[in-house]
Amino acid sequence: MPNDQAEAIVLRTAPLGDQDKLAVLFCRDKGLLRGVAKGARKFGNRFGSSLEPMSVVRAFYHEKERRELVVISGCDLLESFFEIQAEPATAFLLTYFAELIEEFAPARAREEVLFRLLLSVLRCLKDGGDREFAAAYFEAWFLHANGLLPDLSACRKCGRPLAPGWLAPGKDGAFCPDCAPLRKEEVPAGTAAFLRWTRRNPPPGDSAPPFPAEDVARIRRTLQAAIVHHMEREPRTLQFLKAK
Ligand SMILES: [Zn+2]
Fold first, then answer.
1. What's the pTM value of the predicted model, to 2 decimals?
2. Do residue 12 and residue 66 come from a single domain?
3. Dihedrals phi, psi of 111, to nearest 5 degrees
């Protein structure tokens, strides 16, 4: 049984039998990895707090032939984001990030852009960064990294430049007033500037967000509509976030 290791962020765990846990890891070099952490439910087990959600770990594991789940033998904790999850709204937001990554990231494929995105947003939140802005930043980059961001520069149908254009529920891309269907929503002002900014800057830690909160809230609704469209359902965790 060859032993392997990976730098990973713990997305979630779930009880597995009386003694073990299922752990979903998001690895810098290997994408999603699902494994069994043997004995992780026992008192005083060797995993300690390394399997808390969003912990950055070095995981040691081996593959079982013809099994989807690897066997995780140990985890060294490299960086912890436990304390920021004492705030329920932040804890929910991180569960939402985890759900999106687990839904979209391929298993066993290098996903370093998404890995670095998640890590930078976690560090921004730990540094006291604005939660709504960090969420919008994650959503924008998440869509961009997955090639799902609608093109807001030109009408999808006739190619005319847009300022800023219209989105239609259930349709990809943005449209000019002539081509947009009856059911449509205007792209919020500032969306293009926001997307350009996120492309060029890291998430802003404890400094004031560079865009007004009302604009960020409107832009988030647009980004979430694109996520829901491509996921073909509303993320479970997003329903909780909206209900708060
Ligand atoms: Zn058009």
1. 0.91
2. yes
3. -135, 55
